[in-house]
Amino acid sequence: MTELIVGDARVHYRVEGDGPALVLVHGTGPGSVSWNGTSGLLADRHTVLLPDLGGSEKAEDAGGDLTVEILAEQLAAVIEDSDSAPVDVLGFSLGSVVAAALAATRPELVRRLILVAALSHAEDEYVRTNMAVWLSLSHDAEAFGRYAALTAHSRRYLNDIGSEAVERTARFMRPSPGVLRQIDLVRRVDIRDLLPGIQAETLVIGCTQDAFVPVENVRELHAAIPGSRYAEIDSGHVVRLERPDEFVRVVREFLEPVTTA
What we know:
single chain; Rossmann fold; 19% strand; 10 helices
């Protein structure tokens, strides 16, 4: 685990595998541990960088509001410290917002871009209300985690994994100060002015059963990025858990296109 000081924040990242560099940018939650399992499926062909952004303890104080600019600066610092630029960047949910902002403002760092279950702004009243309800449960850790499980996963997936696994899933997300700052940022996100400036080859992936970021939001983001490709997977928000094989296949087909002689 490598530690960097970026501004007044401690930022950690770890490295797995070998090959072309691929950065996995986590969404709202406890950080890079959310990629456990998925990172191993990609590390056989890539050097996978796994940063923890935004939720890390501040180096000197308790920290104020997060911004997309702060998180993009942290992500840039990780890529520069790894000495592997330009890299491929795969962002999930809020991590996609950060990855897109980085690609638009620091194009020399990003070779290819994959944005999963992402939104470009929070003016959607459904998204805004969803975040407000989640934040309102921060005083009750059990309710907070259950609401997270309910919006992160499809009905089909929760029924498939069964009650014991659902209970474990509900305990995964807790209302830590870092997570609450991330949720608050989602309520304020707006990167629409950056999207036309993305130069990197881009794949956008939407999830048809997503109750956290409805797929219409993802389609809107795709339409705003010139020349981007689009794919949909029949899944809830956390597609890497619900459809891991299909998710990795779609990612690999983009990163490793088949060439013919």
